[in-house]
């Protein structure tokens, strides 16, 4: 009976194995309702029965192809796609009776939207919504506009299959959590081109450009030496994590070593402190998309009778790690995100009246904060700690020195390209819309090189050296300052503009659409309009005024500088504002202006006798008012001395 049992078991294993390998598998981006790029070559790769002949059939003309599966069952073929139209049905089979059927497929224009939280920003979602959101949602019933959401995932090596939410869906009010800019661009393109449009949303809030850049395109970028040392050592993902963890622990013990983002000065309460509800995850309210270290404080009032008595501090689960202090003394720490913290506080730390509980929360990825109910217990009496806590950011991990980044977080080089972009590269695209950069403020010189390399890397991966790439220049943010020549935000915007040196690129500035107190301004309609104008003009030849005038000449006179633009300019109220000028000593001053002609402005200042350089809209949150007379678009920030 034992022998028979073994034979039967072995037979079941063999049959099960054959059945498993016979099942046809396609990447997750192939689903009902998908849109394929018209008049292109679609890469169809997957798994079927080993050594079988796999057939791709569709009901468009010329839509049948065959490929031989290898001994592992892998197959790949290039399928020509039809002109815009549909719906179509796709059938993939391997001759064994196994079939994969995709229905309601359209051919049209496919655009990839990527970047960080301002591209991720939903039409209406848990953490944000566009202005007039309900009015936008009322327009979302569009069967020929299809949406695909890529899940937030990371990988230290490129993978073949992306993780997706639900597959392709028809646009409808139910998709209001989708990227607002993505939807609005798709709507405008569909209305203008009158063809089906597919929008792919691959975004992750708070992420830096290097996370989206292919590994080989980071090798010449300074600042990633530790990363390449680890790769050169041939370490797998766990090896990379172990190596990085040693650095991370060192950094947590000595935070000042973690480079510029760690700021202990905020421990002194001032304007840097805000309010946060507890329990909650801060991604859902005050810090969407943020990973890093946040200090949180709560003032606990105790009666005089509690003085000198031991206290039990019961913090709800803390995501991810915590270091907890009571009246300035470390009383405990934990590193399990869903585990309640129970810390005993010695009676000599407890006093009547105000007691300060301070928690440094370390959030590596995903949700962060104290997310379950908390309390303190003294002498059998329970005191709730739920409510409003003060908080301040100590360290933004998107800005952290590379040596302290963890490979399983979204800030590590190449991990988002590997998991969220590489799996899409078999799908031909009409182009890319990109909105990112906040996470790289403070590293403009590095960004300038990395961003251009990322674009070139994507073009190579998609096998399209001229892939259109249109991006958003960062909106104004922070408190307005009239003269701010050292603005890190301005430097990052300047670095973004350098990508225009690459062919088939375009920049839609959002400089005038910002909010000084909100890094996520709600006017995504205008951002999407500007991006769409670039696509309609540069990609589709629909002549549009899609760019503002550019400064093409400077002439220095005695006590003034004349600026000449390539097209007519306009100013609100007839007075140009937003200029600063510099003398030979390096002193900057706000400039008075005079309109010389439709294309020329004269700048001067009683504080600058012999000006040598000009900067326009050069501040974190500038207030320049120069626009194109024809386009109405704002003139982008520029500097003549950089």
Please describe what this structure looks like:
This protein has 642 residues and is of the alpha+beta class. Among the domains are: 264-398, Sandwich (Jelly Rolls); 551-639, no CATH class. It is built from ten helices and 35 strands. Strands 1, 3, 4, 6, 7, 8, 9, 10, 23, 24 and 25 form an eleven-stranded mixed sheet that branches. Strands 11-22-12-18-15-16 form a six-stranded antiparallel sheet, with no helix packed on it. A four-stranded antiparallel sheet has the order 17-13-20-21, with no helix packed on it. The radius of gyration is 28 Å and the shape is globular.
Layout of helices and strands, plus pairs?
Blueprint: H1 2-22, E1 35-37, E2 41-47, E3 53-58, E4 64-68, E5 74-80, E6 85-93, E7 99-115, H2 117-120, H3 133-137, E8 142-150, E9 164-171, H4 180-193, E10 197-203, H5 225-232, H6 237-253, E11 274-278, E12 292-302, E13 311-315, E14 318-319, E15 321-326, E16 329-334, E17 341-345, E18 353-363, E19 369-370, E20 375-378, E21 381-384, E22 387-396, H7 415-421, E23 431-435, H8 444-461, E24 469-473, H9 488-497, E25 505-509, H10 524-539, E26 551-557, E27 560-565, E28 569-571, E29 579-582, E30 588-590, E31 592-595, E32 600-604, E33 613-616, E34 626-628, E35 638-639
Parallel strand pairs: 1-7, 7-10, 7-23, 8-10, 23-24, 24-25
Antiparallel strand pairs: 2-5, 3-4, 3-6, 6-7, 8-9, 11-22, 12-18, 12-22, 13-17, 13-20, 14-19, 15-16, 15-18, 20-21, 26-27, 27-32, 28-34, 29-30, 29-33, 31-32, 33-35
Helix pairs in contact: 4-10, 8-9
């Amino acid at each position: 009976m034992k022998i028979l049992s073994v034979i039967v078991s072995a037979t079941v294993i063999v049959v099960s194995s054959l059945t498993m390998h016979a099942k046809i598998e396609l990447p997750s981006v192939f689903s009902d309702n998908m849109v394929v790029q018209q008049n292109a070559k679609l890469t169809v790769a997957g798994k079927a029965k080993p050594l079988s002949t796999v057939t791709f059939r569709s009901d468009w003309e010329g839509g049948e192809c065959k490929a031989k599966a290898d001994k592992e069952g892998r197959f790949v073929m290039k399928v020509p796609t039809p002109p815009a139209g549909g719906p179509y049905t796709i059938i993939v089979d391997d001759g064994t009776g196994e079939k994969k059927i995709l229905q309601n497929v359209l051919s049209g224009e496919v655009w990839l939207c990527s970047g960080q939280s301002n591209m991720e920003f939903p039409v209406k979602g848990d953490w944000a919504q566009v202005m007039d959101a309900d009015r936008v949602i009322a327009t979302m019933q569009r069967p020929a506009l299809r949406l695909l959401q890529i899940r937030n995932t990371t990988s230290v090596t490129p993978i073949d299959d992306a993780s997706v939410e639900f597959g392709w869906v028809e646009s409808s009010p139910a998709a209001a959590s989708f990227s607002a800019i993505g939807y609005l661009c798709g709507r405008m393109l569909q209305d203008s081109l009158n063809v089906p449009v597919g929008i792919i949303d691959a975004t992750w809030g708070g992420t830096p450009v290097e996370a989206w850049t292919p590994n080989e395109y980071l090798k010449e970028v300074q600042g990633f030496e530790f990363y390449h040392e680890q790769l050169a050592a041939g370490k797998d993902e766990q090896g990379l994590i172990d190596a990085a963890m040693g650095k991370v622990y060192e950094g947590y013990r000595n935070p000042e070593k973690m480079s510029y983002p760690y700021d202990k000065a905020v421990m002194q309460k001032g304007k840097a402190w805000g309010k946060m509800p507890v329990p909650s995850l801060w991604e859902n309210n005050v810090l969407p998309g943020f990973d890093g270290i946040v200090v949180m404080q709560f003032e606990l009032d105790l009666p005089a009778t509690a003085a000198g008595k031991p206290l039990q501090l019961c913090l709800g689960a803390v995501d991810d790690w915590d270091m907890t202090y009571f009246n300035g003394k470390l009383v405990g720490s934990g590193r399990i995100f869903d585990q309640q913290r129970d810390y005993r506080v010695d009676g000599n730390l407890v006093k009547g009246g105000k007691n300060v509980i301070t928690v440094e929360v370390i959030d590596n990825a995903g949700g962060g904060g104290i997310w379950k109910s908390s309390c303190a217990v003294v002498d059998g009496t329970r005191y709730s700690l739920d409510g409003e806590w003060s908080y301040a950011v100590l360290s933004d991990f998107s800005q952290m020195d590379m040596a302290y980044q963890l490979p399983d977080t979204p800030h590590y080089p190449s991990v988002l390209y590997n998991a969220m972009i590489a799996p899409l590269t078999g799908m031909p695209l009409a182009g890319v819309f990109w909105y990112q950069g906040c996470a790289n403020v403070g590293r403009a010189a590095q960004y300038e090189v990395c961003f251009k390399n990322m674009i070139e890397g994507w073009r190579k991966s998609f096998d399209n050296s001229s892939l259109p790439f249109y991006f958003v220049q960062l909106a104004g943010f922070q408190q307005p300052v009239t003269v701010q020549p050292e603005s890190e935000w301005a430097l990052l915007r300047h670095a973004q503009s350098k990508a225009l040196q690459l062919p088939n690129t375009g920049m839609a500035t959002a400089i005038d659409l910002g909010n000084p107190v909100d890094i996520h301004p709600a006017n995504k309609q205008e951002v999407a309009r500007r991006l769409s104008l670039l696509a309609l003009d540069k990609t589709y030849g629909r002549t549009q005024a899609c760019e503002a005038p550019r400064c093409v000449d400077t002439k220095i006179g005695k006590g003034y500088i004349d600026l000449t633009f390539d097209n007519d300019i306009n100013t609100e109220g007839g007075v140009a504002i937003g200029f600063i000028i510099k003398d030979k000593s390096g002193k900057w001053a706000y400039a008075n202006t005079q309109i010389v002609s439709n294309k020329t402005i004269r700048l001067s200042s009683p504080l600058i006798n012999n000006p040598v350089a000009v900067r326009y809209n050069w501040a974190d949150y500038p207030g320049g008012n120069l626009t194109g007379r024809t386009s109405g678009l704002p003139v982008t920030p520029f500097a003549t001395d950089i």
